[in-house]
Design brief:
alpha+beta; Nucleotide Exchange Factor Grpe, Chain A, domain 2; three-stranded antiparallel sheet; three-stranded mixed sheet; 3 helices; 6 strands
Length: 144
Amino acid sequence: EKENEANRNLIAKLLPVLDNLERAMAQAQKSACDSESCRTFVQGVEMIDGQFRKLLEAEGLKPFDDRGAAFDPVRHDAILAIETDGHPPDTVLDVVERGFLFNNKVLRPARVTVAKQPARPGGDPGAQDLPEESLEQEEGETDE
C-alpha cells in the first residue's frame, strides 16, 4: 500500500515532464528540420519519449482521451463551455490536457472543453424580467 502510494506520488510529479516532452515532439514535427543532425536529434528524442511512456505504462499509468464522452467531474476538469447545437450538453468536445489513470484510478483529470446548450433567442432562459425599480432595490440592499 505504501509502495503504491509512493509510486503514485512520483508518477504524478513526472506528468509535467511527460506533457513537456509531448509538446516538444509536436513542435519538432511542425518545424522544418533541414539538416541530418537535426533529424537525428529529433529521432533520438522520439526514442526517449517512447521509452519513457513504456516505462510509465508498465508501472500502471494509462492516458485517457474522452472526446465525445459525457462530462464526468471525477475524470474531467472543464475549463471552457462552448455553446453548440451539434452535441448534447455536457459532452466533452476537446481535450486541452490529457488525463491519466494510475492503476485504474484517476491520477490527473483531463482538462476539457464541454458543450453547453445555446442561449435561447431573447436572453437567458433562467433570467426573470424584473422591473427597473426591483433591480435598484436589490442593488441597494447588497450595499448595506
